[in-house]
Amino acid sequence: MAYTHHNNELNLAHLGQTVRLKGWVARKRNLGGLIFIDLRDRFGITQLLVQPGHPSYELASTLKSEYVIAITGVVIERESKNPNMATGDIEVNIEELVVLNTAETPPIGISNEDTALEDTRLKYRYLDLRRPVMQNFMIKRAQITQAVREALLLEGFNEFETPILGKSTPEGARDFLVPSRLYAGEFYALPQSPQIYKQLYMVAGFEKYFQIARCFRDEDLRADRQLEFTQVDIETSFLTELEIQSMIERVLAHTFKKVLNVEIKLPIERMPFDRAMSLYGSDKPDLRFGLLLKDLNPLFDHYAIPFLANKSIRGFVVPNGAHLSRKELDAFTTTVKKNHGDALAFLKVSNHELSGSLLKNITDPKQFIESAGLVENDLLLVIAGKDFESASKAAGALRKELGDYLKLASDDDYRFVWIVDWPLFDVNEDGSLTAAHHPFTSPKEADKPLLFSNPQACRAQAYDIVLNGYELGGGSVRIHESHIQQQMFEAIGLSKEIIEERFGFLVGALKYGTPPHGGLALGLDRLVMLMTNTKNIKDVIAFPKTQSARDLMMQAPSSVADAQLEELNLIIKK
Amino acid sequence: MAYTHHNNELNLAHLGQTVRLKGWVARKRNLGGLIFIDLRDRFGITQLLVQPGHPSYELASTLKSEYVIAITGVVIERESKNPNMATGDIEVNIEELVVLNTAETPPIGISNEDTALEDTRLKYRYLDLRRPVMQNFMIKRAQITQAVREALLLEGFNEFETPILGKSTPEGARDFLVPSRLYAGEFYALPQSPQIYKQLYMVAGFEKYFQIARCFRDEDLRADRQLEFTQVDIETSFLTELEIQSMIERVLAHTFKKVLNVEIKLPIERMPFDRAMSLYGSDKPDLRFGLLLKDLNPLFDHYAIPFLANKSIRGFVVPNGAHLSRKELDAFTTTVKKNHGDALAFLKVSNHELSGSLLKNITDPKQFIESAGLVENDLLLVIAGKDFESASKAAGALRKELGDYLKLASDDDYRFVWIVDWPLFDVNEDGSLTAAHHPFTSPKEADKPLLFSNPQACRAQAYDIVLNGYELGGGSVRIHESHIQQQMFEAIGLSKEIIEERFGFLVGALKYGTPPHGGLALGLDRLVMLMTNTKNIKDVIAFPKTQSARDLMMQAPSSVADAQLEELNLIIKK
């Protein structure tokens, strides 16, 4: 007999109906001879009841937490209703009880309040995932993925696959390698992204490609990084930078509306990279709060303050920040130092008097308050760095941290911004160039001649979509002309031989009628994190690796049989 | 300015409209001074026209095949219409022409008739994929995938992800290994299927899982195999074998209706494995034609035919098959021998006379015709093998080949069948057992005690879905009881230590309240092959490997830098 309801569905409208339910015993109590069972499935909980003397009473007495059972019973009204439960008005009087499986006492509690250590949770992930909060993360992930897909299908995209076993092209991050058994000493590589394949789909004329794509980077893990991650990978032909951005905006708006019922106001603001660095000290500014950065050199340059001499000085005013103590502020020095800043100082206005770490250097406090435009209870934070970029980044990091500390931003406020007009190249210390985005990114149309004459002045047709201080995705219009692609590779120092060996097929492909094209990749894990308001990326991945790159449940990686290595022609170095 | 139409859209209803189109130059002709251009995109072709003297005329003269262009023009009626083209009633008179990219002469022709060698097609896959027939394969693949997904979402499933970097458990096929950089001498493995992860989703209570999952097997390639392939991976809790099958039937019916507008009659026939072997000599019978196998020992046993002595004799009647010549029939001997058969003989009835290779052994031809139930023009094929299974398989292979040879089956006829009631184990020559499906398959409920007493008599709760002689997918109800899983591993000869090392977490997981569960995996590549009527699996994969496991376009696998191997602590054996 099929199950009639999930455990969140029954209410007074079902009184008297015979129903069949299944699920896990979340709790069992014996009250005055009656046995009450909370039956859980991923949808909710229904209270069951067994009367003393009923044929199932004895079996019901043996039930323990996490037993899997199926029951038939009749819906009755509860005496003491629970308004906090969807099914809180009713209970089900058991007529038939079947135990589908027993359970030993689980090593972690199946409740949101459980406080097991992360390693224990990961070892018993299949139990950790039973906790309602984790179920919600996974279901939301599936819904978000599907909403994104739905939006892209509505935009006329097709979902296409690309290979996982590809070629190693050691640009950017480190590749995972897969030894070939048939070709001794040769390797496939797992893709860091389907970048080249999606461009080849454009070369082939498919015009609108997307894929929910698994990507791999053999990098040392940080808190929000995994060895493998998922991106919404998008590529399209014949569209301009702005048209691509508009399309992505519609996809994001559809997704937020569908999953969170949140309206995103379109169009999303577009901010040049230079402006973001200048006002926010970050290429992923959090726009939910102010604290805009200022250039403080004009203010401080006529005071002879030794530790600010020859520095770039940036900073920002925290309105009503004067209550922050010296101790609290000193703690932020670490943030400044960690982010390339040299020093942090402060001044505040309380009772119309200036105070703070720089006071002894300020000869004319009243005049200073006026020049700085400070008002009562203002806190002015002053960050010094060796150059504009360093000071800005340090000030930007401090701004972000202070925003969190003062709770200036709400989790329910979704502030998107496009960062545009990026440089095409980063300049290394030795003056050599690397691609700021990746070497397939097109210069701005007007800057194409500069690629040959003064490459580092080139601006890119690149754009990042930023949400609440996180980079949600990045993209660009790609190079579609073979000679530009060749020059781009040369500009980043690749020899003609290396270009031919690694990217010969791509430079070749661009010669046979490649349309203008571009796209973007959204980090799905991060998108889900932001939409579910969790800070731990492992919460939104069903079976994550630890920060030390291990699967604690399956015990991977692991040693393998000698015969396997033999077949692969490999020896492990002792 | 945005593009207004695809190249399959314009017709007489658009006369006089100014349109903007883009695409590839498929053909250019100069007729009496007028330049005609066939403009192609993935949707179709529109004919363009440039008048002599027009400012764009000179530029139009320089166009070559596969140039990418954008045009603005006015829709006009054609003088000589082409009823075979969606846009054959009109042409577009060019007002503005922009060349978006040029093209060298492509190494393969961009037409369905191109006869380039497969290796050339694979090397220039981005051009091969421009051919309309290949575009159709890829678009159909995307549509089929999406239709399957849509059906599963309607059934209440969620699409969940599973890791690609997992653990090597050398059951069944060979694993691809991925060396770990952080743990010298240890490896991740790519999944042969997400089998265990999807079961863990059930343990975790998610109830309905699916994934369009990439799977990997390091096996020697056959014509219809690739190193990586895609399966529609499905798992569900609390359903019986029959309920799972019904759900899959609805998914298939939805997909065939949506993509091909073909109605599949439900329920799909269910045929026990034994019956399939007996009537069709195959566990994946093609039901589009008859030629049912018979047991011929009763017929031949009283003739003393030396080469049939002590053999199992099977065969089938081909109505109106008497016209097949001895030469044609002799050619089929190879098929019989290749499929474990020992001999092929035949008898036919023409002009009411028996003839054929066995005639000299038949002492009473008239009586034989009657006993065998033959009628005029019948051909009786006689296959001998060392036992029932060998003779049946050989006869089944011959049946299939003859069906193809005589064109008894239509490509548009979709005949599904479930093969059910499989044995749980295969018996090896040495008497040891291996799991016929995989070691997570549950015995039939009634056979569970046999697992401990007489395992090889166990039948499995396993089922294959077969379409037109191809296995489209296979599945089973899984073992959800820990002690049954432990016994199953022991029955296939795994020691307690190996069980603990490889599957300890699974045997453990089943102890904490695992629901009954089961599922199925559909081979997506094969499904697309069958639905697009191609015989070459590479046709439905955008970037396939060759049969010798190489990517000819990117040149993978390839050697890697010494530094990469150094980091992985590996040495290549010389």
From TrEMBL, chains A, B:
GO MF annotations, alphabetized: aspartate-tRNA ligase activity
Listed Gene3D superfamilies: Bira Bifunctional Protein, Domain 2 (3.30.930.10), GAD-like domain (3.30.1360.30), Nucleic acid-binding proteins (2.40.50.140)
Sequence positions that bind L-aspartate: E171, R217, H437, R478
Residues covered by the Aminoacyl-transfer RNA synthetases class-II family profile domain: 144-544
Entry superkingdom: Bacteria
Keywords: Aminoacyl-tRNA synthetase, ATP-binding, Cytoplasm, Ligase, Nucleotide-binding, Protein biosynthesis
Annotated InterPro entries: Aa-tRNA-synt_II, aa-tRNA-synth_II, aa-tRNA-synth_II/BPL/LPL, Asp-tRNA-ligase_1, Asp-tRNA-ligase_1_N, Asp/Asn-tRNA-synth_IIb, AspRS_core, GAD-like_sf
Ranges in coiled-coil conformation: none
Entry EC no(s): 6.1.1.12
Enzymatic reactions: tRNA(Asp) + L-aspartate + ATP = L-aspartyl-tRNA(Asp) + AMP + diphosphate
Annotated binding of ATP, by residue: R217, D218, E219, Q226, E471, G523, L524, D525, R526
Subcellular location: Cytoplasm
Function: Catalyzes the attachment of L-aspartate to tRNA(Asp) in a two-step reaction: L-aspartate is first activated by ATP to form Asp-AMP and then transferred to the acceptor end of tRNA(Asp).
Entry-linked PANTHER family: ASPARTATE--TRNA LIGASE, MITOCHONDRIAL (PTHR22594:SF5), ASPARTYL/LYSYL-TRNA SYNTHETASE (PTHR22594)
Family assignment from sequence similarity: Belongs to the class-II aminoacyl-tRNA synthetase family. Type 1 subfamily.
This protein's name: Aspartate--tRNA ligase
